[in-house]
Design goal:
919 residues; alpha/beta; Immunoglobulin-like; TIM Barrel; 7-stranded mixed beta sheet; 35 strands; 16% strand; elongated; amylo-alpha-1,6-glucosidase activity; Ig_E-set; GlgX_Isoamylase_N_E_set
Length: 919
């Protein structure tokens, strides 16, 4: 028979309204946990055996060799303790009082910061009805703020009887008998963190609160961003502290992004099928604790000190990002948990109250409803699940300092009785909360359930990932441009995406284009570079026979699958990448860039590297420390210049998609956006519906009397240079063009302009002083890269020279100098002209520096052509008595006899450019 719980362990119910563990002024703590259908719940506290117990006077000792089974004995005492010698730990169990309105309570007379604890729950075992209580299993506190340990692939982690075979596969039925293997030591436990200091954040920097119109999101993985960072000492690589390092922050500031969107940093656990295969979930979309940060991203020192130090490192990271001017957006996963399907482990919710937490079939409650593809789905029709999620979000915002959240598979969070509605109680709870409602809230607007695609349907104040923008932009610049392709995306579709996707986001009064999170790539899919290198996914490293990941990539390889040393192919790829990023950053809406795309990061064609915690997903930073400007540096410069231009323009805040007047039929066409065809005329209806229309101009008009300027976004989607007649009310200048990636730029008149190199090719590493702390690092990286680059360059140069010599049959015997060989074999009739020799020498210098030909613009074949064209221009100019600009190379053999017309500009083929009004 149970003995009554002493009064000193009871809690007045009126004071306990939320689950969790709360420190009290008497030196103890109140513990509250929810389980509506359990028969009994225990709070278990863990202490080392070699330390005096805080509960010695009250706890009844029970022994492992007792004739009474452990589970029955703990029912008999309000407080009992046992020693597990094999783990050198003491477990003290406090029988809780309840349930009262679904809650169980106990008051600990003593509690301390860093205290390790868990719950045990007893009740019915009826898997066919979805009831799976098992007191042999340790359960995390759903509200626990710290975590210690991890789940091992062991029968103890499963509530049903099972075995682990020699192949690491779990053998047993989830609908079979209950497991009687104790889980202690095989699963993680919660760690108490004393959070009573209300003044701890008083000295924090103010949150940046970047307006949506100025926001540029940057999606990154805490570990992957700095795991290979050479500027960090080894102990900081791949950590929260590494992301907060001054050099890391300086890089992000140099790029110009405003808001750092972190892949999940809530504590995670590998899914069962990954554990069976000995692999790990790198992305982290498998949440173990919604209040605890992931410990593995903390420094070793913080992990050694415990959960409190891990959390402090996260808070310090957020504080450092705020001080540097960045918002911190956190990716969160409330649609499912790491427990997976019914065959998965029991670590928290399944053991506490599986019926209340998870959605299940009405006619078959033993089976879980899965709209996430991960085995289970949180039941957001349960008020207590909604409260749990909101409490977690408020904790991260208030205590950690997070500025916003991106909700994974958010359509699941808005399902009532299986159907999505933007009027879901959870969405209203977010809107109406005084704290959360003023943060940036971003939805991934789809899931795997019925009618799972809901882009544009969440309403205010939510923003949403815009997959329509992603797919249309990819198709326009990649698949539609390939030889033999029939255009599928024309002016109308691209204009809609450039204008903020009003077709999806003009859903209610006041909802503007900033609600559209425009992106071309994200963590889920190809990188930007891989989009232009691979026509098909290459996920063999994932161990799933390349069946995982989407086949609908809208990518192109430009003739070669994977990396290529063909300069022509590399130029096409770089131009395509710039077109994609240019469209992203010049469109109305909120742009999101994935980390690494600004310098050409690759994942080797893997479009689903969720389990690749290695160099496939870790960013490679060696390019940053070469003493000549690398292609990566040049792309970074082009992107940071475009971001700066976007932020300087007060034109990206349109909120006039939809007004109350629209509801009664009084439509007001926007005067802020105008459209032109290349001939300067306004498009007719037939033009909008012609998918072959791939060249047009979008004008964003300023309505300010200040220094604001109109801009033109000029798109030439054809494979030839094209003349555009720009509006004649202003003079225009080109501020940025994707064609600069291949050395071209729009220009007035009937020819494009070829850009000269604006510098001598050196970069910041050449001015690092010997006393600078980073000098040794620069020298180490440069020497290592230079040795490999010289070897690769010599081999490539010799191979190219031999190939061309064989093709032309030129006699270059008598010399072994690769410079002379290259010049002689590339120059007309075998004559080594000064221009060709100079060009070939430049090519060798570039190859010695390790730069690919795309930015050197000096591969031997191209060098010959440029030399001939430049000489022809000089000859023509001399004949006319005019000075020729060696940087300008005509693309039209016939010069306009009447001179360049004021409003006529020639725009390079397949490019996007931005023209600013000259004031």
């Amino acid at each position: 028979m149970k003995r009554a719980i002493p009064q000193r362990y009871a809690i007045p119910h009126r004071y306990a309204t939320r689950p969790g563990l709360y420190f009290t002024d008497d030196g103890g703590a109140d513990a509250v946990v929810r389980s509506e259908t359990a028969d009994q719940v225990w709070l278990c506290v863990y202490e080392p055996v070699d330390q005096p117990s805080a509960f010695f006077n009250d706890a009844i000792r029970i022994f492992e060799d007792s004739p009474v089974p452990f589970i029955k004995e703990i029912h008999s005492h309000p407080v009992c303790t046992r020693i597990i010698e094999s783990m050198y730990v003491r477990e003290t169990l406090f029988r809780m009082e309840g349930p009262n309105y679904g809650l169980w309570y106990v008051h600990l007379p003593k509690a301390w910061d860093g205290m390790r604890y868990a719950y045990r729950v007893d009740g019915a075992w009826d898997p066919d009805k979805g009831v799976r209580f098992n007191p042999y299993k340790l359960l995390l506190d759903p509200y626990g703020k710290g975590i210690d340990g991890e789940m091992r692939l062991d029968p103890a982690a499963f509530s049903y009887a099972c075995e682990i075979g020699p192949d690491r596969r779990v053998r047993g039925s989830a609908f079979g008998p209950m497991s009687t293997v104790d889980a202690l030591g095989k699963v993680p436990v919660s760690v108490a963190i004393d959070d009573r200091d209300e003044t701890k954040h008083d000295a924090d920097p103010t949150h940046p609160h970047v307006p949506w119109s100025k926001t540029v999101l940057y999606e990154l993985h805490v570990k992957g961003f700095t795991a290979n960072a050479p500027w960090l000492p080894p102990e900081l690589r791949g950590t929260y502290a590494g992301l907060a390092h001054p050099i890391t922050l300086a890089y992000l500031q140099g790029l110009g992004v405003t808001s750092i969107e972190l892949l999940p940093i809530q504590a995670k656990q590998d899914e069962l099928f990954l554990q069976e295969r000995g692999r790990h979930n790198y992305w982290g979309y498998s949440t173990l604790s919604y209040f605890s940060p992931e410990p593995s991203y903390a420094t070793r020192e913080a992990q050694r000190k415990g959960a409190g130090a891990v959390r402090d490192e996260v808070i310090a990271m957020v504080r450092a990002l705020h001080e540097a001017g960045f918002e911190v957006i956190m990716d969160v996963v409330y649609n499912h948990t790491c427990e997976g399907g019914v065959e998965g482990p029991t670590v928290c919710w399944r053991g506490l109250d599986a019926i209340a937490y998870y959605r299940r079939g009405k006619d078959n409650p033993g089976q879980l409803i899965d709209t996430t593809g991960c085995g289970n789905t949180f039941d957001f029709t349960n008020t207590h699940v909604v409260t749990f999620a909101v409490d977690s979000l408020r904790y991260w915002a208030k205590r950690i300092g997070i500025d916003g959240f991106r909700f994974d598979l958010a359509a699941t969070l808005g399902r009532l009785d299986g159907n999505f509605t933007k009027h879901h109680p959870f969405l209203y709870a977010l809107r109406s909360d005084l704290l959360l409602g003023n943060l940036k809230l971003i939805m991934e607007p789809w899931d795997l359930g019925p009618d799972g695609w809901r882009t544009g349907e969440f309403g205010m104040p939510f923003s949403e990932w815009n997959d329509r923008f992603r797919d249309s932009t990819r198709r326009f610049w990649l698949t539609d441009t390939q030889p033999g392709a029939s255009p599928a995306i024309g002016m109308q579709e691209m204009a809609t995406r450039l204008c903020g996707s009003a077709d999806r986001f003009a859903t209610e009064p006041g909802r503007g284009c900033v609600s559209s999170i425009n992106y071309v790539v994200s963590h889920d899919g190809f990188t930007l570079t891989d989009l232009t290198r691979y026509e098909h996914k290459h996920n063999e490293a994932n161990g799933e026979n390349n069946r995982d990941g989407t086949d609908n990539n809208h990518s192109a390889n430009f003739g070669v699958e994977g990396p290529s040393d063909d300069p022509a192919i590399e130029r096409k790829r770089e131009l395509a990448a710039m077109n994609l990023l240019g469209t992203l950053l010049l469109s109305l809406g909120t742009p999101m860039i994935m980390a690494g795309d600004e310098f050409g990061n690759t994942q080797q064609g893997n479009n689903n590297p969720y389990a690749q915690d290695n160099d496939i997903t870790w960013l490679d930073w060696d390019w940053l420390y070469q003493n000549r400007k690398t292609p990566q540096m040049r792309r970074l410069e082009r992107i940071s210049r475009l971001i700066a231009l976007r932020k300087s323009l007060d034109l990206y805040h349109h909120e006039e998609f939809f007004t109350r007047l629209t509801l009664i039929g009084l439509f007001r066409p926007s005067s802020r956006v105008q459209w032109y065809l290349p001939d300067g005329t306004t498009p007719m209806d037939r033009d909008w519906f012609d998918v072959g229309r791939r060249s047009f101009v979008m004008r964003l008009r300023s309505q300010s009397d200040d220094d604001a300027r109109d801009i033109l976004i000029v798109i030439n989607g054809t494979d030839h240079d094209m003349g555009f007649r720009l509006p004649s009310d202003y003079d225009w200048q080109c501020e940025w063009s994707s064609a600069s990636a291949i050395g071209l730029c729009p220009a007035p008149g009937r020819r494009v302009r070829r850009l000269g190199e604006p510098d001598d090719g050196r970069n910041w590493t050449t001015i690092v002083g010997e006393g600078d702390a980073i000098t040794e690092l620069v020298h180490q990286v440069q020497s290592r890269l230079a040795a490999q680059a010289k070897l690769d360059a010599r081999i490539a140069a010799d191979d190219a020279a031999a190939a061309v010599g064989h093709e032309r049959g030129n006699d270059t015997s008598g010399t072994d100098d690769p410079h002379v060989l290259m010049a002689a074999r590339r120059s007309p009739m075998g004559n080594a002209t000064d221009d060709a020799i100079s060009a070939a020498t430049t090519a060798m210098d570039v190859r010695d520096s390790g730069e690919p030909p795309i930015d050197a613009a000096a591969d031997a074949a191209d060098a010959e052509s440029r030399a001939r064209n430049a000489q022809a221009e000089r000859d023509a100019a001399n004949a006319d008595g005019a000075d020729a600009d060696a940087d300008d190379v005509t693309t039209d053999a016939v010069t306009d006899a009447m001179g360049a017309e004021r409003d006529l500009w020639t725009v390079p083929a397949l490019s996007i450019s931005v023209m600013c009004q000259i004031q």
